[in-house]
Amino acid sequence: MKDVFLPTQNFQKLSGLCDELLGSAAGIEMAAVIGSAGRGKTTAAERIVTHNQNAVYIRFEERLSFVGLIREVAFAVAGVRPNRTQECVEMIRNELGKARRIIMVDEADRMSMKHLNTMRDFHDTCKVPVVLIGEEMLRGKLARERRLVSRVRETMTFEPVSQPDVVVFYRKALGLDVPPSEAARLLKHAKGDFRFVVRDALQAERIMKANGLKAVTPQLIDEVVRDGGE
């Protein structure tokens, strides 16, 4: 199977949102991107950062203290992690003063309110867009404080993978055309999770190689979806 990137509707919406935030200076350039695990949030964010020199990406980890988060922001925008907090803050401000960036923070639903307000401070003092990415818990955390939620211009929901996404993925990754009826079964089996789409595609590829198959058939999909039911 080829390693391919699928520009889903979710990705296109997120890319457009980032462009909009970078082009704005209204003082409300924060956004929340919310979706269940497996919707492709991380992949989309990493793809945007790879192709947009004005975007930086931070993956939040629960081990990060308040100071640790500031050091990660410094590394994302300047490539270094100073030990002193004030030195980190000054470096971040200097770098963002030279070139406006959009800061994308993944796993933001795991952040404490202090961590979230730290990102709000960077948004306010450095005049840069901040995109917080996470699961549903993030929505509730942002709503706890008016000073946070009032700065969120848009809350984007990452929707479940669609049937056209399944069809295009199989075509690009495996060079296979999937009939609509079988694509619908694969979509149902994946339960909206793109990782499951990939897992099923790998299973289909193994079965096809083992049996010398050249096309997607109902019998092939029967075997792919057997584990876990349709």
Low-confidence stretches: none
Distance between the first and last residues' Cα = 23 Å
CATH architecture group name of the largest domain: 3-Layer(aba) Sandwich
Number of helices: 11
Class of secondary structure makeup: alpha/beta
Tell me the name of the CATH homologous superfamily of the largest domain: P-loop containing nucleotide triphosphate hydrolases
The biggest beta sheet reads: 5 strands, parallel
Mean pLDDT: 94
Arrangement of strands in the largest sheet: 2-3-4-1-5
User: How many β strands by DSSP?
Assistant: 5
Q: How many structural domains are formed by the residues? A: 2
- The percent range for helix content is 40-55%
Oligomer: single chain
The global form is elongated
Strand content: 5-15%
Q: N-to-C SSE series?
A: HEHEHHEHEHHEHHHH
| Rg for CA atoms | 21 Å
Main CATH class of the largest domain = Alpha Beta
Task: Give a quick summary of the entry.
This protein has 11 helices and 5 strands. The radius of gyration is 21 Å and the shape is elongated. Helix 1 packs across helix 2, helix 8 (163-174) crosses helix 9 and helix 8 packs across helix 10 (194-211).
Walkthrough of the structure:
With 230 residues, this protein is α/β, with parallel strands linked by helices. It is elongated. The mean pLDDT is 94. A five-stranded parallel β-sheet has the order 2-3-4-1-5, sandwiched between helices. The longest helix has 18 residues, at 194-211. It is 54% helix and 11% strand. Helix 5 (113-126) links the parallel strand 3 (102-106) and strand 4. The protein has two domains: 9-157, P-loop containing nucleotide triphosphate hydrolases (Rossmann fold, 3-Layer(aba) Sandwich); 163-224, no CATH class. The relative contact order is 0.16. The chain contains eleven helices and five strands; from the N terminus they run αβαβααβαβααβαααα.
